[in-house]
Structures are given as C-alpha cells and as structure tokens.
Design a protein that fits this description.
It comes from Culter alburnus. It catalyses: L-glutamate + ATP = L-glutamyl 5-phosphate + ADP; L-glutamate 5-semialdehyde + phosphate + NADP(+) = L-glutamyl 5-phosphate + NADPH + H(+). In the C-terminal section; belongs to the gamma-glutamyl phosphate reductase family. The chain is α/β, with parallel strands linked by helices and 782 residues long. The chain contains 26 helices and 24 strands. The longest helix is centred in the N-terminal third of the chain and has 25 residues, at 99-123. The chain is globular, with a radius of gyration of 33 Å.
Length: 782
C-alpha cells in the first residue's frame, strides 16, 4: 500500500507540463492568479480570487460523536472538496486535528485485546468478565494515532491523483528563526510541486497549553491549539484565505442555542464588544473565543477568514467549495465595513416598518400609493435620465437581447401608464387589510372572526424590468406587506431612483423603511436562505430565474411558475374564424410571454380539411416555425422537424403541433406534458367545453379565448406580482388578494374549554353571523 502511494505521488510529479498547464490556465483567466499579499478580501464575492487557502479541521469535525475514532464520511467529503480546488490550480493546505481520537480508538482496541487474552489464559474459559479501560494519556494517543491519520489522508487523496505530505510542528518551530525559515521553505517547495501539506501540532511531545497564553501582538501568536496554528501558518505562508471548520454554523452574537442568538454573516474587528461567548466544543482545547482571536490575528496579517460548520455535510453541502465560490456560508471576517445596513438588517427594518404600515388606516395606505403615482410623473426627467444611463451601459456591453433591452427601457408614456395603474391599486386597497371574511357566534358572548392580514416580508427578485418596482411596491403597500427588492444590475440606476421615490412616498406616514432595495453584493441564492426572515419569494423574470430560485429556496415558499407550456386545443366542432384568431393571438402577440401558446393540439378529424390548412397558412404567414409531435408526424409523408420533447417552452415564434383523437385525450396530453399554467379549448359544443373546463387542472382554463388573457391587468386585478401554478395559496394571476393571508380572532368573556365539557354549563351554538366590512379599531397585523 505504501509503495502504491509513493508510485502515485511520483507519477503525479513526473508529469512534465503539469505546473506549466496550471500557470497557463491561470494566465488565461481560467484559474485564480496569485495576488499581492497585504490586505484581506473586502467582500465574500472576492473569495473566488483566493489562490492559497488553508483549511483548518477542528476536532469536532474530524472525530466521531463518541470521540473515539474518525468521522470517515465527513472526512471523505472534505478531502474531495480540497482535491477539487487543488486540481483547479489553487494551493491548498490542511491543518488537522484527529490524531488523539484516532490513537484513542487504536489503543482501546489494543488494551481490550490484551486484557481478553490475559483473562482467557488465567481463567481458562471463554466467558470474559467486565473489563474497565484505563484513562488514556493524550500524548500517548497522539503518538499512536498520527501515522494512521496520515495514512488515511494519503489513501483518500490518492483517489483524486493528489499527493500529500505530513508536517508536525510545535510552538518552538515558530519562535526559532532558523526552524521557521526551514518550515516556510519546505511548505513552499511542497506547494510548488502541487502537493497538499497536512499540518498538525506534534501532540506526542507538545507540553500542555498555558491557560493564559494569548495573542501577543502582530508578529507573535502562541501556538496553543490548531486555531492559533492555522492562523500563524496562514500569515506565515501569506495565504489568501483561512477556512476554519468547527461544529457550529459560524459566529453568533450570543451563545448558540440561546433565544436571541443570531448568526453573524460578517464580523468586523470593531465588533468584539458585542459578542458573548459560550462554552467550547465537546472536543478540542479551543473554543469560539479562541477561534475569533486567531481569526482576527490572521485578518490583521492580511489573510481573509471564514468560520463555518463542517460537521453536517448533508445540511451544509460542499461547505469549502461554497465558501470559495463566495456563497453566504458561515461567518466572514472583513476589515471593510459597508456604509449601509446588511441585508439581514434591511429585512429586520422592513418587517418592523411593515407592521406599522399594516396598522395604518386604508386611506393612509391609499395616500402613499397616490403620492408614489404623482412622483412618477413629477420626477419623470430624473427617472428617464437614470434609465438612459442603464440603456447606454447595456448597449455598450451587448449582453442583453433586444427583448430584454425593450423591457429595460422606460418612456414618458410608460410612466404615465404606471401612474394610472398605481391609482387603480390605491382604490382597490381600501378594503384589503383587516377585512372580516367570516364571523361565527361560537357560544353566548364568544365570537370568532377570520380576518385578512398581510403575509409579512416579501422578497421580489426581478430582471431587466424597472417598471416592476413601482408596481410591486404599490401592491405591497396596499396589502400592508414589507418588501425586499432585488433588481438586476443592468437596471441599477433606474431601480435606485424608483426606490428613492417609493421611500419618499412612504415617509408621509412614517414608514419609509417598509420597502428596501438590496444594493449589496448579495447573490440570489444567499437571499433564498433567509428562511427565518422572509415569508414569501416572488421571482419576476425568465423561467430559468424562477427555476433557480425554486431550487435555492430553503424553507421559503416561492410564488410563481418555472414554465409556461400553454396549450390550445382545436376541437372538431370549432369555428375556423375563432380558431385562427385565438391561435394567432396566443402565439404571435408576444411569443416570449409565459402565457403564449407553445403546443397546438388538433382533433384528428380536422386533418386534411380546409380548417387545418387555414391554420397552417396563418402560422406560416406569421413566420412561426412548426415542430411536429410524434402522432402528427406519422400522418405526414414529409413532415416538419419532429419535436425533441413535448414539454418545451419555446418563448419565440415556434410551436409544436400534435394530433389527438378526442377532447379527453387532449386533457390527458395537457396533464402529462403541460405546466398547469394556461390552457384553451376552441369549440362550439358547450358540453365538450364544460367537460374540458371541469376536468383540466390548470391555473387558468379558457373557452374560445386567447391564452394571453391570463394576466392580472386583463383580469381586472389592477396589477399582478406574477402568475402562480402552485396548488396552495394564490393560483393564476396574483394581485392584491394573493398577497394576503388570514388569522382567527376570538373574543370572549372569560370562557374556558372546561365550560363546554360534560360537567360544564355552556353549549356550542356555531351560529354564522353577517360579515361586516373592515371595523375601525379591529385592524390586525401578521
């Protein structure tokens, strides 16, 4: 086995152009280049540039829960991630614990074995008595475990054609200048040869840590645990990033598990006074306070630091690679404090102001929306100037399609239309929050009400559509919801001025913070992880954006649809004029819309008839590319290109045509291949139409009407935040009503459940009462 490992390492080093290949790839921008060391990274997104990385594995990460033996599953995941980064051209170093635990397992096994042999010899019988294990000394365990730990690392890294080398150090190795230079030289040589150094304190000879030894200035740090060792090593080797993995998610402002403990996404050197530390982990000699001090020392030396959880790979995923990709994992230590609030602080501000917004009178919320409508026209020059900058920048980059550029553009007429739409929302907001939906007299002097309330905090993510911002803001204000907005960077200038106007309108009733625009470098995936702060995510953009958000959202409902595979079924009893009008509008009016037709289903009896010929002629005249479904293709000698999938959203002047034998087959086809968005039947037979409308399980089902009617404005909702294909909460075009939920309010006079028991004196009435309108003084918030 040892010879196999040596052969693997020598074969790796023997590659003549391996290092040259890495350097050439880096020079082409495919891999991170070494950067000038001196300052740490200011933002998480900059961590992608990290070239030299130290990964510190705490005892709780490496060892099993019984502290005897190694957690092989976790270790395998960590090794895989380190190997992946190493093979990307980065320089990886590992500072590991685990020798004591590995040795403890080995020594216990040896002791049990020797005791059983002695007992068997002395007693002459196979039945063993209870055997007590002696207390094992840590240094002896380390001596017994170091070789096994290293052999395990070598075996795992060999699977990824990655060579490793072991280095054992003590505090003296850093205090002696010659030893420190030797260590530095050895590590640099190993990194040059693309070898992963695995470093550990030599626990077999190291003295017990001094209880009060601590950081002693910029140039000196006492190596009393692997946290301080990793920090010292990272600074000594001018590492770009130190990843310290432990058994907690990161740094909390108070001991984890306490009621008010909050995980800190970013920690700044001046924030130490705001932290209350808890007890140290179950194993190891360090604690969170030691980790923070070591991290700050490394940060001062120019190395960025992230403290994260490495004990639950199923929960945290690929924590090391996620950190290097700049994802919001653990606590990031930064010397640069942003000028504005963090996204977590923005969410808390929005929730607090949102509760005040929900408690306002309906007329006050209407006033705010009308004020915003006025500002859109009064300040249109500022808005259009900002939009012009965005348009010019987008045109210079050339990344946006003509359709997206059209969405990005604003005009005076568009702003006037927005203003009119906002006033319609203001009118409809009068009876939204606090409306009594149901009243029941449960018993004498015991009344129950079901009342509409806001959902809470909405996160709306939108692309290339700055006009979405005032629309969604007005709907959030009307429904009393707090709002967190994340717009595309292509509309940054326009979004900024529109958000300022929204907050100006909110200020007239003191709720300016109810709407927040996320302008920091937050990735959408990171925002989707704020499950304790955000109540509903509403994506507005491409189907790919919606799918990405639905995958990323952890514990937060997503309102929307990932696909708009809409069907039009032309029955054999359809009117040819109606069919042509509906198909043309459904496909050609706006092919990129989510409610555009993607599949045309035609009854078999219409094939080779003038009706079918007229439909095909119209599609050709409109330059619609036709793809034949399998059944349709079988009827043709020379057919159009056969469709690759019947579940395709083209989003362009393309569609699939398929043949069905009956209305029931059309329903079955839509259930199998559709996306439950919008589907249409064209027929003059009322019974057939009613069966279609009743049987089809889609958010919108139409008879003799274009699929383009699936729109909040056309439905008379004033505006919409999107179209939902979900089975719960709102479905179809979602307007003001879809942003509300309900709660139950019970008013009694000292009633108890015991009053209604067999021994009690009261009986249930359950009498339905008339539903009143919004009652003054009875408004409630979520």
């Amino acid at each position: 086995m040892y010879l196999q490992r040596m052969f693997s390492c020598s074969r790796l080093l023997a590659r003549p152009n391996a290092l040259q290949t890495f350097r050439r790839a880096a020079s082409q921008g495919k891999m991170p280049l070494a950067r000038a060391h001196g300052k740490s990274f200011a933002h998480r997104s900059d961590l992608r540039q990290a070239k030299r990385i130290v990964v510190k594995l705490g005892s709780a990460v490496v060892t099993r829960g019984d502290e005897c033996g190694l957690a092989l599953g976790r270790l395998a995941s960590i090794v895989e991630q380190v190997a992946v980064l190493q093979n990307q051209g980065r320089e990886m170093m590992i500072v590991t614990s685990g020798a004591v635990a590995f040795g403890k397992q080995r020594l216990r096994h040896e002791i049990l074995l020797s005791q059983s042999v002695r007992q068997a010899l002395h007693s002459g019988q196979n039945q063993l008595k209870d055997m007590s294990l002696p207390v094992l000394e840590a240094r002896a365990c380390a001596a017994a475990g170091q070789s096994g730990l290293m052999a395990l690392y070598e075996a795992m890294f060999t699977q990824y054609s990655t060579c490793t080398a072991q280095i054992l150090v003590t505090n003296l190795d850093f205090h002696d200048d010659q030893k420190r230079r030797n260590l530095n030289s050895t590590l640099h040589e190993l990194l040059r040869m693309n070898i992963v150094p695995i470093i550990n304190t030599n626990d077999a000879v190291v003295p017990p840590p001094e209880p009060n030894s601590d950081l002693q200035g910029v140039n000196v740090i006492s190596i009393k645990d692997n946290d301080s060792l990793a920090a010292r090593l990272a600074v000594e080797m001018r590492a770009d990033l130190l990843i310290a993995l432990s058994d907690v998610e990161g740094l909390y402002d108070s001991p984890p598990g306490s009621d008010d403990a909050k995980l800190l996404d970013t920690f700044y050197p001046g924030d130490q006074h705001s932290i209350t530390y808890g007890t140290k982990s179950r194993v190891g000699i360090g604690g969170m306070e030691a980790k923070v001090k070591a991290a700050l020392w490394a940060l001062q030396g120019g190395t960025s630091v992230v403290i994260a959880n490495g004990t639950h790979p199923k929960v945290t995923g690929h924590v090391i690679t996620d950190i290097v990709e700049g994802k919001k994992v653990g606590t990031f230590f930064s010397e640069v404090k942003p000028a504005g609030p963090t996204v977590e602080q923005q969410t808390e501000m929005a929730r607090s102001a949102g509760r005040t917004l929900a408690s306002l009178e309906p007329e006050q919320r209407s006033d705010i929306i009308c004020a915003l409508a006025d500002l859109l026209t009064e300040r249109k020059d500022e808005i259009l100037s900002a939009n012009k900058k965005d348009m010019e920048h987008a045109a210079s980059i050339g990344r946006l399609s003509p359709a997206l550029l059209k969405r990005l553009s604003l005009s005076s007429s568009k702003l006037n239309s927005l203003s009119i739409g906002l006033r319609q929302i203001a009118v409809s907001s009068q009876d939204s929050v606090g409306r009594v939906l149901r009243r029941t007299r449960v018993a004498n002097n015991l009344e129950l009400e079901q009342i509409t309330v806001p959902i809470g905090v909405l996160l709306v993510i939108f692309e290339s559509r700055p006009d979405c911002l005032p629309q969604v803001s007005a709907l959030a204000i009307a429904s009393g919801n707090a709002l967190l907005l994340k717009g595309g960077k292509e509309a940054a200038n326009t979004n900024r001025i529109l958000h300022e106007l929204a907050q100006e309108a909110l200020s007239i009733h003191g709720v300016k913070d109810a709407i927040q625009l996320v302008s920091t470098r937050e990735e959408v995936e990171d925002l989707c992880r704020l499950e304790k702060m955000i109540d509903l995510i509403i994506p507005r953009g491409s189907s790919q954006l919606v799918r990405d958000i639905q995958r990323s959202a952890k514990g937060i409902p997503v309102l929307g649809h990932s696909e708009g595979i809409c069907h039009v079924y032309v029955d054999h009893e359809a009117s040819v004029d109606k069919a042509i009008k509906i198909i043309r509008d459904s496909k050609c009016d706006y092919p990129a819309a989510c409610n555009a037709m993607e599949t045309l289903l035609v009854h078999r009896d219409l094939l080779r008839t003038p009706v079918f010929d007229q439909i095909i002629d119209m599609l050709r005249t409109e330059h619609v590319k036709i793809h034949a479904g399998p059944k349709f293709a079988s009827y043709l000698t020379f057919s159009p290109s056969e469709v690759k999938s019947l579940r395709t959203e083209y989003g362009d002047l393309e569609c699939c045509i398929e043949v069905v034998d009956s209305m029931q087959e059309a329903v079955d086809h839509i259930h199998k291949y559709g996306s439950s968005h919008t589907d249409v039947i064209v027929t003059e037979n009322e019974d057939t139409a009613e069966q279609f409308l009743q049987q089809l399980d889609s958010a919108c089902v139409f008879w003799n009407a274009s699929s383009r009617f699936a729109d909040g404005y056309r439905f008379g909702l004033g505006a919409e935040v999107g179209i939902s294909t979900a089975r719960i909460h709102a479905r179809g075009p979602v307007g003001l009503e879809g942003l509300l939920t309900t709660k139950w309010v019970l008013r009694g006079e000292g009633h108890t459940a015991a009053d209604f028991s067999e021994q009690g004196s009261m009986t249930y009435l359950h009498e339905n009462l008339p539903v009143a309108q919004i009652l003054p003084g009875r408004r409630t918030t979520s």
